[in-house]
Design brief:
The protein is an alpha+beta fold. It has one domain. The chain contains four helices and five strands. Strands 1, 2, 3, 4 and 5 form a five-stranded antiparallel β-sheet that branches. The longest helix has 21 residues.
């Protein structure tokens, strides 16, 4: 059994609205201290969701998050709940989901990515 935690990184064009689009999913294999941040690949599709969104800024933010997470994991002090709580307003992580899985971590990542970010598979 592998102890897995994950949270979906979403863009909310309006703080008042519940509408959102998943930009990435942060996966953490707590058992083996492995972390992966899968991000949306077709960033131009975000323009159809919000034509005022600066795709270059979003791309930089996603890259910065990936780097920050990897550095934290390498230092051995990564905590997904602590990390995700600092994102608020238009860009934020959903509540962390914790579960135990019997499948391979990468298979779990692939199935969740297909479920929560199908736009990358178009």
């Amino acid at each position: 059994m592998i102890n897995v935690q994950y949270s979906i990184f979403c863009y909310y064009p309006s703080v008042e609205s519940k509408d959102s689009i998943a930009l990435g999913i942060l996966f953490y294999d707590k058992t083996n201290n492995i972390c992966e941040f899968k991000t949306i690949k077709k960033l131009q599709k975000l323009k159809s969701f919000n034509d005022e969104l600066d795709i270059d800024i979003v791309k930089l933010q996603l890259e910065a998050i990936k780097e920050e997470i990897q550095e934290s994991v390498l230092r051995g002090n990564f905590d997904i709940k602590d990390y995700t709580k600092f994102y608020i307003n238009e860009l934020k992580f959903t509540e962390v989901v914790c579960m135990e899985i019997n499948e391979e971590f990468q298979d779990f990542i692939d199935s969740c990515t297909k479920q929560y970010m199908p736009v990358i598979f178009d």
